[in-house]
TrEMBL record:
Taxonomy, superkingdom: Bacteria
Keywords recorded for this protein, A-Z: Acyltransferase, Transferase
PROSITE patterns referenced in this protein's UniProt entry, alphabetically: GNAT (PS51186)
SUPFAM superfamilies, sorted: Acyl-CoA N-acyltransferases (Nat)
Pfam families documented for this protein: Acetyltransf_3 (PF13302)
Transmembrane residue ranges: none
Family per record: Belongs to the acetyltransferase family. RimJ subfamily.
Species of origin: Jutongia hominis
Coiled-coil parts of chain: none
InterPro entries listed in its UniProt record: Acyl_CoA_acyltransferase, GNAT_dom, N-acetyltransferase
Ranges where the N-acetyltransferase domain occurs: 13-181
Name by which UniProt lists this protein: GNAT family N-acetyltransferase
C-alpha cells in the first residue's frame, strides 16, 4: 500500500508526526462541528504534542497495516487538510473485515470530496489487505453520512442500541456494510 494517492481533486496521504501542527489546526477549526459525532476528547487533545504522538502511533500502525488513516488535501490548497478516512479494527482469518470512519471539516461538506476519496480507497484497501467486508457505524440522525454510504453501495444491516459513547452519551447506531463483491463507482 502506498503512502499517498491522487484522485481527480484530492491528495490522500498518510501523515507523520511532523504534520502535527496541521492536524491540530484542523481539529481546532472544526471542534464545534465534529465533537457532537465523536467520543469525548482527552484534556490535551487540542495540543500539538497530542497530535504528534497520535500521528506517530498511526504511522507505525500503517507500516504494520493494522490501522490506516489517510488525510485528505485538496489539490488546489495542498497545505490544508480537509478531513480523513480511517480503516480500523482490521481483522483477518475468518472475518477479513475492517471498520471505516471518516470526517470532513464543515466548510468542505456537500462537495463530493468524501465520496470521491472513499470510492477510490475502498477497492485498494480491500485488495491490499485481502478484506471481504467494510463496516460503517452511523448515528441514525446523521443523514448526510447515511446518504453518503448509500451512494457508495453500503447496505444497512441493523440497529445497534446504545452502541457507542459519543460526546459523553451512549448513542444508538446503524450498521452498514460494503462487501467486496459489490462495485463502487469510480471517478
Amino acid at each position: 500500500m502506498q503512502f499517498s494517492y491522487e484522485t481527480k481533486r484530492l491528495n490522500l496521504m498518510i501523515l507523520s508526526a511532523d504534520n502535527a501542527p496541521l492536524i491540530q489546526h484542523f481539529y481546532q477549526k472544526n471542534a464545534a462541528f465534529l465533537e457532537p459525532f465523536e467520543p469525548a476528547r482527552p484534556e490535551n487533545f487540542y495540543t500539538i504534542a497530542f497530535h504528534r504522538s497520535n500521528l506517530s502511533c498511526e504511522y507505525r500502525a500503517f507500516l504494520r497495516l493494522t490501522h490506516i488513516r489517510f488525510w485528505l488535501f485538496r489539490k488546489d490548497v495542498p497545505e490544508e487538510p480537509i478531513g480523513s478516512i480511517c480503516f480500523s479494527n482490521i481483522m483477518h482469518g475468518a472475518f477479513k473485515k475492517c471498520i471505516i470512519g471518516y470526517k470532513l471539516g464543515e466548510e468542505f461538506c456537500h462537495y463530493g470530496y468524501m465520496q470521491e476519496a472513499i470510492s477510490f480507497l475502498i477497492p485498494i484497501v480491500m485488495k491490499e489487505l485481502d478484506l471481504h467486508r467494510v463496516e460503517a457505524y452511523v448515528q441514525p440522525d446523521n443523514m448526510p453520512s447515511i446518504r453518503l454510504l448509500e451512494k457508495l453501495h453500503f447496505v444497512e444491516e441493523g440497529y445497534l442500541q446504545k452502541y457507542a459513547e459519543i460526546h459523553g452519551n451512549w448513542t444508538d447506531h446503524l450498521l452498514f456494510s460494503y462487501l467486496r463483491a459489490d462495485s463502487l463507482p469510480r471517478f
